[in-house]
From TrEMBL:
It is found in: Nucleus. Residues 1-169 form the Josephin domain. It holds the Pfam family UIM. It comes from the Eukaryota. The active site is at C14, C14 (nucleophile), H108, H108 (proton acceptor), N123. Residues 234-261 form a coiled coil. It catalyses: Thiol-dependent hydrolysis of ester, thioester, amide, peptide and isopeptide bonds formed by the C-terminal Gly of ubiquitin (a 76-residue protein attached to proteins as an intracellular targeting signal). InterPro entries: Ataxin-3, Josephin, UIM_dom. GO terms for cellular component: nucleus. One of its GO terms (molecular function) is cysteine-type deubiquitinase activity. It comes from Parascaris univalens (Nematode worm). The keyword Nucleus applies. This is ubiquitinyl hydrolase 1.
Length: 317
């Protein structure tokens, strides 16, 4: 990240630092911005037809208003558009469509810009630029908005810069990028700067965005939910299989019982048919045999009667 122009905080000149880091060049000094502020004060006094001793566009600490920053950017044909403006809807949906942003909270300014194919936070309260991934950029702005920051889209063609060319060819390795830098000792010795840092930190200006840890937690939560769902699915499958198996067993037992009843009924019918056939044969046989016996008996009887008749005739003769 050596190719990136980075200005560290001096007094309360964060607006100057934010502008120069946004444009990636030492284009403005505190004197330049003060002149713009005085010109704007003069125009405002003319319109309002009153002389104001107190400036509304700067103060003695080095703070400059958004009007001064907007006027300075007009030199490069750049325009500031509030992110909550209807004209910035596409940038709200996808911040990566922009090229640069400038943010403000409690008189502190810093820039967010794409250099090459990567996004960087350029905050003079930090010791180095901070890399932000495309996927994390939306969350970054969402947190800033939640903390009360005013966010502006820088609309227009930014001037060419060395860092853009270098990082297009050699992107920064995220593993080597500094994510959380300590406050420098000389910053702690400056009371005004210390108050500005404390105020910015209390409002989210230097929130440590450890993307790796956030991603790990998100992935861990996702894996846990998947495991729970998988366990529930497996349990449901087991219960379903158990119920299906039990139902199949019941059906098999019922089929066995029905088959056994059918076989038993078939055997009973066969036995009945066999019994009827045997008794019928015996009756027929008896019917056939009985007349023969009767006929033989009749013959014997008739013979005896004849003999008696003959004997009777002989006696009479």
């Amino acid at each position: 990240m050596d190719s990136i122009l980075f200005e560290k905080q001096e007094a309360s000149l964060c607006a100057q630092h934010a502008l120069n880091m946004l444009l990636q060049g030492s284009y403005f000094s505190a004197v330049d911005l003060a002149e713009i502020a005085h010109e704007m004060d003069a125009r405002e006094s003319t319109v309002m037809e009153e002389d104001s001793i107190r400036s509304h566009n700067m103060d003695d600490s080095g703070f400059f208003s958004v009007q001064v920053i907007s006027e300075a950017l007009k030199v490069f044909n750049l325009e500031l558009i509030p992110l909550n403006c209807p004209n910035a809807e596409r940038y709200r949906r996808d911040p990566t469509l922009g090229r640069a942003y400038i943010c403000n909270l409690n008189e502190h300014w810093f820039a967010v810009r794409r250099l090459g194919f990567q996004w960087f936070t350029l905050n003079s309260l930090l010791s180095t630029p901070r890399l932000i991934s495309d996927t994390y950029l939306s969350l970054f702005f969402a947190q800033l908005a939640n903390d009360g920051y005013s966010i502006f889209v820088v609309d227009g063609e930014l001037p060419p810069c060395t860092a853009d060319d270098v990082l297009s060819k050699c992107p920064v390795d995220p593993a080597l990028a500094s994510r959380s830098e300590p406050i420098r000792e000389d910053q702690q010795q400056d009371p005004d700067l210390a108050r500005a840092i404390a105020l910015s930190l209390s409002k989210g200006g230097d929130v440590p965005f450890d993307e790796d840890e956030e991603m790990k937690r998100a992935l861990e939560t996702s894996r846990r939910l998947l495991d729970e769902n998988d366990h529930s699915l497996q349990q449901a499958i087991r219960e379903s299989m158990k119920e299906a198996t039990s139902q199949m067993n019941d059906e098999d037992e019922e089929m066995d019982r029905q088959l056994q009843r059918a076989l038993q009924m078939s055997l009973e019918d066969s036995a009945y048919d066999a019994g009827v056939g045997t008794s019928g044969f015996c009756a027929a046989t008896r019917a056939r045999e009985q007349p023969a016996v009767v006929r033989q008996a009749d013959c014997i009887t008739n013979t005896k009667q004849c003999e008696q008749s003959v004997s009777s005739v002989n006696v009479e003769g």
